[in-house]
Structures are given as structure tokens and as C-alpha cells.
Design goal:
single chain, alpha+beta, 5 helices
């Protein structure tokens, strides 16, 4: 006699049940992914803002070590001139120039010993590269920030005690010259198409974007100010916001009289009238 055996049936998902589960997962993903993307973008903005504040702190410590003299801030575009005295010693381009990747242009510069971490020089949202740079296997260039051209010794541009690019405005050589330091920015993240050297220049008397602020963070740029605080400033003119890509800015950009809110905010926070 064969032993008695009880057979059990194991239940499984039907095709309809599987489709329902897949649909629910898709709905949840559609709801969660934008929120995760926004959270990531916000985190990157916070890191960027903290970077500008770290650079600002290094700028202040440098001044304390140099009898209140501010770091050199030299325009180097269109010239082979380089000097480690400058706060950074590179000019970024869209070709394979070593200035784009050579970290010694940051560490062996005027501000380098006071910064410590080279990550502070690049916004985590900045991955702008040219086709030739991507083909070379690059992940990013090494700097996203520039310094207000009216802050620091500008070399030949400021030999007479004022900046020839903005002769009616004060060139700040020492921190003690900056009245209302909460109103004057020192560092900002600059559009990758205009960043080139570390010298961010706008001419108050000529309404056009010569250099362009970045807008990585939901149409905002990170700024740090002479009193040490930082802030994200959101642009209100659509013409200010250009894609972070090679040759996307199409500089210089004329600024019409009816659309100068962003331009005037920047120039108002670069310096004060000398008179």
C-alpha cells in the first residue's frame, strides 16, 4: 500500500495583479523622483553657497595675515601673464589647456594656502564641458567661482588707486575701506561661458553683461559678502539666465533699459561711488 501524500497548491500572482503592482510602482516613482531631484538640487545649492563662504573666510584670513591688504585680483584674459600672487592663477577655456584641470593653479596661488580643500573652488552643479573636453575623458573643470573685480589689487588696472574699468567707483584694497560690508559681494559662481580668469567685471557706466553670473540653482547664483555672510540671489530677468554650456551666453549681452534689474543689482553690490 502506497503511503498517503497530501499535495498543496502554492498560490501565485496573476498577470493582472503583477500589472497592478507595476503600475503602482510607476506612479510612486513618478511622484518621488521629482521630489528627489529637487532635494538633490537644493543640496547642491547649499554646498555651492558654503563654498563661496569658505572662499570668503580664506579671503578674510589672508587680509589678517597681510596687514589688511586684500588678495590680488588680476584680469588675465588675452595675455600669457600668470602669477602665483593672484588669488587664482588660471584662465579657463573650452579647449584642452592645462589651466582647466591643473589644481596647482589653485593651491599655489595667493589664496590657496588659506583655502585648504580644492573642492571649494567648484560648484557641484557645474559639469559644463566642451565636446573635445568630454572626448578627453574630463568630468569637470576645476573652478566655478570668481572674485568681484572691484575687490583687491587689480594690478595695472588700479595703479592710480582706482580701477580704470570703473573709474567713478571705489577699488577696495583693504577690508577697512569697505563700508557696509554686508552690501559688497566678494565671490560668486559665474556662468561657465564667461568665467575665464577669476576677475568678475561689469562696467556700471556701460549696461551690458561683460561677465555673466551663473544660474545653476533654479535661476539663482551664490554670493558671499565682505562681512562673511552668503546668499542665493534669484534672477528676475529671463535674459540673465543662459544654459550652462559652451558658447551659450553669446557675450557681451546688451541690457535694455527696461530689463536692468539683475544688472543693476550686481553693479550696486560691486562697489560704491567714489564721490
Amino acid at each position: 500500500m502506497r503511503p498517503y501524500r497530501v499535495e498543496s497548491k502554492q498560490g501565485g500572482f496573476t498577470l493582472i495583479e503583477l500589472l497592478v503592482v507595476i503600475a503602482m510602482i510607476a506612479i510612486l516613482a513618478a511622484l518621488l523622483l521629482p521630489a528627489l531631484a529637487r532635494a538633490k538640487a537644493r543640496a547642491q545649492a547649499i554646498v555651492c553657497l558654503n563654498n563661496t563662504r569658505q572662499l570668503d573666510l580664506a579671503w578674510q584670513v589672508y587680509a589678517a595675515d597681510h596687514n589688511d591688504d586684500l588678495p590680488y585680483n588680476l584680469g588675465m584674459v588675452g595675455s600669457s601673464f600668470r602669477t602665483p600672487l593672484n588669488w587664482v592663477n588660471n584662465v579657463l577655456t573650452w579647449d584642452l589647456s592645462p589651466d582647466n584641470t591643473n589644481l596647482t593653479t589653485l593651491t599655489d596661488s595667493g589664496l590657496g594656502p588659506y583655502v585648504g580643500n580644492t573642492r571649494c573652488y567648484r560648484c557641484p552643479s557645474d559639469h559644463a564641458l566642451s565636446a573635445v573636453q568630454r572626448a578627453a575623458g574630463w568630468e569637470a573643470r576645476i573652478r566655478s567661482y570668481s572674485m568681484n573685480a572691484m575687490v583687491g589689487n587689480a594690478g595695472d588696472f588700479s595703479t592710480n588707486g582706482y580701477n580704470i574699468n570703473n573709474p567713478d567707483y571705489i577699488q577696495f584694497f583693504k577690508t577697512t575701506q569697505i563700508r557696509q560690508p554686508s552690501e559688497i559681494f566678494v565671490f560668486l559662481d559665474e556662468h561657465p561661458d564667461s568665467i575665464n580668469d577669476g576677475y568678475f567685471l561689469e562696467r556700471d557706466y556701460y549696461p551690458e553683461w561683460h561677465d555673466l553670473p551663473a544660474s545653476y540653482h533654479d535661476g539663482s547664483a551664490a554670493f558671499s559678502f565682505a562681512d562673511g555672510h552668503g546668499a542665493l540671489h534669484r534672477w528676475v530677468e529671463t535674459a540673465t539666465i543662459k544654459p550652462p554650456a559652451p558658447y551659450a551666453a553669446n557675450l557681451p549681452i546688451p541690457v535694455p533699459a527696461a530689463s536692468r534689474a539683475d544688472f543693476e543689482w550686481v553693479t550696486d553690490h560691486m562697489s560704491f561711488d567714489r564721490n
